[in-house]
Structure prediction request, 429 residues.
Amino acid sequence: MYQMTANEGNCDNTYDAITLYQLFNNEQMLQYCLDKFPWAKDYLYYYIYVIYARRESILPTLSSISDREQKDFSFEKAYEYYSNYEKSKLNVGIVIPTCNRPEAIRFLLGYSAPLNRRLGVDIIVYDSSDNEKTRNIVNEFRENGYYNVSYQRYGGLFDGFSLDHKIIQIYTDYADCYDYIWVCRDGLVPVIDEIIEKLRYYKESNVGCIIVDAKSRNEGIEKEKCYEKIEDCGLFLREQAHRLQTLGMLIFSGEFAKQLVKTEPINDDNYSLWQMAAPFHSFAKVPFKVVFFSRNVFATNEKAVDTHFWGKAEKTIRQWGERWYHIIMSMPDVYNEAKEECLMVYTVDFHPFSARLVMELRAYGGLNAIIVCKNSSILKQVTKTPMWYFYTISLCPKWLLKIILHYNDNHKGVFSSIRKKLIPNINDY
Prediction:
């Protein structure tokens, strides 16, 4: 940790970062720094009052500013010096794949951009939209001083179903740019301040694959463990397969990302969930250290919760029925002891075939008895929801289910209690 010695008058103590926060308010911090850097009034105003810079980073940043730039101040130049110093300790890029969800991006950036700017962390919006709305929002944030936010257009392969090619392209584009790359879906708001110091530690320990999750999805408990031996395979799959369904739970080092892209190409055994499946396949070949921990790392994106990719019945069943079953059962043999336990698609906050979501698939997603009959064998493998319920809902009038869903939204728990009596073993979200 950078330390500052105050010996210019009445004190000869050494000030570390904690002491700076405890002893100095903003005005005192400003004066303390001006005593050391009399030319830096504009820079200090920006660091202390605009971006709320980490106090332990202010003096080292000022020390790095060239004589010419001391006189040629701009907000953008000031941030460049500050972010360069922060990146020298840890360089993290958060990449948000998105498509036609501009308001979700606006909400995410409004929450995350100020915090990440303070930490020198970049946010890259990786966009496939068919219009310029998302790009314009990113430009608005940059024009308002969020120089850590940038826009990248993705025009590569998309087959209408899988995001795998887009995800791989992200790692290809940024593996050489960052110590760690955190790819996160736009339905979550990544909150990095609680884990930034842990990432610095793991960088020094050469950990390439990190799994993160919210405390709220883990009984409110802070957890931490690692997997690093071939004997850990069963436990690794059993404990992490369901968690890694969600895009945002994995943080890769640049080096690890390059290795994974090279050694684990898209194939039938990982297609549609490449980022989830590839680390398991790689670990089975040559085990490496994987760290998992839970902290307060996510907030809900309120502008994204009403729209999601898996809105159509056939796509949902293909992904979380056919593809999920095949991906789990195609894992290397070292995972055999855990495969059967991973087939049911259940997490704390995600079950694609819950009683409610089956209603939604009928009301809005085109579910019908033909689709249920066609996929009945695979549905029995991945959900506890009984087939009689699928058939019953698939035959209900869509207008009736829309009324039920609307009523349930405004009278929480009424239909939940009824469903639990009818289907006592179903997980209902």
About this structure: The first helix runs from residue 17 to 23. Residues 1-14 have pLDDT under 50 and may be disordered. The CA atoms of residues 43 and 349 lie 45 Å apart.
